Amino acid sequence: MNPPARSVTTLVVEDSVPVRERLCALLMAEGCVQIVAEAGSVREGFLAFERFRPQAVILDIGLPDGTGLDLLRQIKKAAPLCFAIVLTGFREPVFAELARTLGADCFFHKATEFERVTETLRALALEPPMTP
Fold first, then answer.
1. pLDDT, tens digit, for every residue of 85-130?
2. Which one of 64, 70, 72, 83 is CB 3.0 to 4.6 Å from 56, fit for a cystine?
3. Domain coordinates of the chain in residue numbers?
4. Of 38, 35, 37, 34, residue with least CA distance to 7
5. Topology of 8-126 in CATH?
């Protein structure tokens, strides 16, 4: 029997409201994910990150005031152990490579790997907590 999952505090940064709502609903149904904030831009995302210091972030690349990769760079500089998932519509391998170079733990495509986000956070919840 698996030990009870801990709750993974999570920030969702996605500019498309319908996509963000779908993702948050999917995550909340998991029970082991606590969404501490939602944001639709780099600026909102970083302010929410600074305020809540979540254990995990989910980042879209295309945002109205920059890119999720810009935000990823800022987050990893401030909190290297924060688990970062890039969830995007961009398929080009260069984006996955750049995201990983900047510290992304996972890179998923919205159209084909949307559900992998919940699987990944569920697995993260079963791991022992990381300490800085």
1. 999 999 899 999 999 999 999 999 999 999 999 999 999 988 876 5
2. 83
3. 8-126
4. 34
5. Rossmann fold (3.40.50)
In 3D space, the residue among 31, 25, 24 whose CA is nearest the CA of residue 4 turns out to be: 31
Dihedral Cα 115, 24, 106, 43, nearest 10 deg: 150
Taking CB atoms within 8 Å and a gap of at least 24, the contacts of 15-20 are: 15/40, 15/41, 15/60, 15/62, 15/63, 15/64, 16/60, 19/60, 19/110
Three-class SS string for 65-126? CEEHHHHHHHHHHHCCCCEEEEEECCCCHHHHHHHHHCCCCEEEEHHHHCCHHHHHHHHHHH
Encoded tokens for 86? 């890039």
